[in-house]
Amino acid sequence: MNTIKNYLKEFKLAGMLNTLEERLSYANDNHLSHNQFLEILCEDESTNRKDNGHKKRYARAKLPAHKTIEDFDFSFQPSIDKKQINDVATCQYIKDKRSLIFIGNPGTGKTHLAIALGIKALSKNYKVFFTSVSEMLYQLHTSKADNSYYKKLQDYLSPDLLILDELGFKKLPSYSADDFFDVISKRYEKGSCIITTNKNFDQWGEIFTDNVLSSAIQDRIIHYANIFKINGQSYRAKEIKKNEKNA
What we know:
Radius of gyration: 23 Å
CATH superfamily of the largest domain: P-loop containing nucleotide triphosphate hydrolases
Structural class: alpha/beta
Number of helices: 12
Distance between the termini: 64 Å
Largest sheet: 5 strands, parallel
CATH architecture of the largest domain: 3-Layer(aba) Sandwich
CATH topology of the largest domain: Rossmann fold
Shape: elongated
Number of domains: 2
Number of strands: 5
Oligomer: single chain
């Protein structure tokens, strides 16, 4: 038994190693053939690798919270069509290299939906990466100091789905439009994005302080995107009022 376990460790077959003794007992009790026993062990290894792969992808995604579509209160935000959200939750937009844009005031659930769709994508074995727009632009800018810009850029180009949160929430430095355009243009028709923003498209020029680049960014995003406008109230304001009422 120890020799077999050592071989499994050497071959990095952790799934088989973890269930070996349990499966041997099961095989003896149920008079399984060698083929049946080996098939069960292989299934254990496959399941273990899938689970580990999902855990690694989830960790690399850098999601700030665990939020699901099932947790989203569509009755509070009637401007969001639940059927449309369930449609994009199939992740067909990722296969089609399309993007999603959620526009609405702070607290209306944009980030919740972005995270929930990111989790759906992870469950379908897609690579996902979540970042605020300001953090991404800061990381890209500082990477120029040690000439690691193009290496850092790959962090935002390699995922199947890049989630860019809070576009327009913070005033962006003048240099940021070039870097944002770099990411969007290189992902255009090659990878999907989810963008959340509190600014309508006619206000994007204010975000980037460069109307020409702003128009170029919009053109590439809108051309291949599904747009969701949330006109409802803030969930956070709702909770504050609820707490004040119960106090």
